[in-house]
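Many introductory courses stop at the sequence. We go one step further.
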Amino acid sequence: MGRVDVRAWSLAVEGATVRSTETPSGPAEAEGEARPAEPVVVLLPDAGMRAHEEFSFLLTVLGRRRRAIALDVEPIERAEEAVDAFARLVRATRGAIDAIAPAAPVALVGHGLGAAVATAIAADEGRVVALVLVAGWLAPSERTRVLARAWTTLHEEGSAALADLDALLLLGAPHLEERGREGLSRTLDVRARDGIAMLGCVDLRAAADRVRAPALVVGCARDAIVPEAESRALFAAIADSRYARVDSGHAVLAERPAELGRLVEEFVRCPEGRRAGAVLEGMRP
């Protein structure tokens, strides 16, 4: 199936350090066979998640046919407002993609905060040929703002309750009851804190209106961080989009990796295989 290579380097983009985990370009290329051109798939993680851990399964699934890259943008040590920090994160991520896959068509796959970054990039990047937004939002609700403030306060106070709260927010009740925190890889560090702050203030309505790439929006039925209604709003705002619902909490890659992997692989392989506005059926629980 091909090994996974890990590379790390510094980029001269907003002073960010980017870590890349990637698969080879696929078995057909290695064997010298002709095959249809595939986009480079770029995976963008949620707040506090390490890309190579969160996307380990998707890297394997997507890397069978094409080059797949998971990107971590390390925190930039400078205090600033969350909206400005998000704009810098978007610029740093775009610069990393330009450095790794110059001029190549790109499929962006983002989860949570990564979905917000992917939406912002796709709004102004013509070579994005497919866009997958998992547990993404359109604009912060009052509930989201309250959650972001409470989580940030607990983090700054060093509360011992934060790890338990995080598990309650990230995981659906069935998974938590049956398997506890199994599969959950979020670290409660400055990356998670800054990402949660962005969740409470980043408004993507203008960006979503400019997205022209075919998109798949995946909502999580038991999500306590980005309720499914917020993902449905994002779906409604992107002109060429389809929707899929997965029965999981926010940490869908821990709870339903096979189901999400199938949805993403099928969409990336043929983004326009389903008409805009279609609602895709997920696997049964």
